[in-house]
């Protein structure tokens, strides 16, 4: 079924000017970018977005990293978009990511891992709402 997922191209990727290379992977997989904006997250925004990780040891570093530079937030649409984008991204830790995935080919570390993607359809809906108004999404 046609589905939407939420993506962040992270500060390590905007810093290296490789956002186009990453979007090419997304589009080549048959996912369509139906919303997109370049933003610099505030600390409060990053803390709320990653609130589920608040108790984890890496939370502070994760928030610092996510506000260290601009990011590109996007809504991706396509058949089975949530699972498909997870396949295109590869494992969270680039050391474990399969060949040909975004994280294998571009990520610097488990923290600076170039992209975020929703982990399920419900999370996707919540994450999309966090950054986009309905009229900013154009299919
Ligand atoms: P993301 O999909 O954005 O969701 C949470 C992020 O936390 C994850 O990608 C990683 O970038 C980061 N993360 C997960 N585990 C660790 C870890 N052990 N150390 C540092 N960062 C981590």
What can you see in these coordinates?
By secondary structure, the protein is of the alpha+beta class. It is built from 7 helices and 4 strands; from the N terminus they run βααβααβααβα. A 4-stranded antiparallel beta sheet has the order 2-3-1-4, sandwiched between helices. The longest helix has 11 residues. It is globular, with a radius of gyration of 14 Å. The model has no long low-confidence stretch (mean pLDDT 98). The structure holds adenosine-3',5'-cyclic-monophosphate. Adenosine-3',5'-cyclic-monophosphate binds next to loops.
Helices and strands, in order, run as EHHEHHEHHEH
- Estimated radius of gyration: 14 Å
Helices and strands: which structural class? alpha+beta
Query: How is the largest sheet built, in terms of strand order?
Result: 2-3-1-4
Count of individual beta strands: 4
| Ends apart, CA distance between termini | 15 Å
Unreliable residue stretches? none
Strand content: 15-25%
> Helicity range of the residues?
25-40%
Average pLDDT figure: 98
Protein name: Nucleoside diphosphate kinase
Subcellular location: Cytoplasm
Cofactor: Mg(2+)
Pfam family, one: NDK
What topology does this entry show?
Elements (H helix, E strand, L loop, with lengths): L1 E8 L1 H5 L3 H10 L3 E8 L3 H7 L9 H8 L4 E9 L1 H9 L12 H5 L8 E3 L3 H11 L8
Antiparallel strand pairs: 1-3, 1-4, 2-3
The structure holds adenosine-3',5'-cyclic-monophosphate.
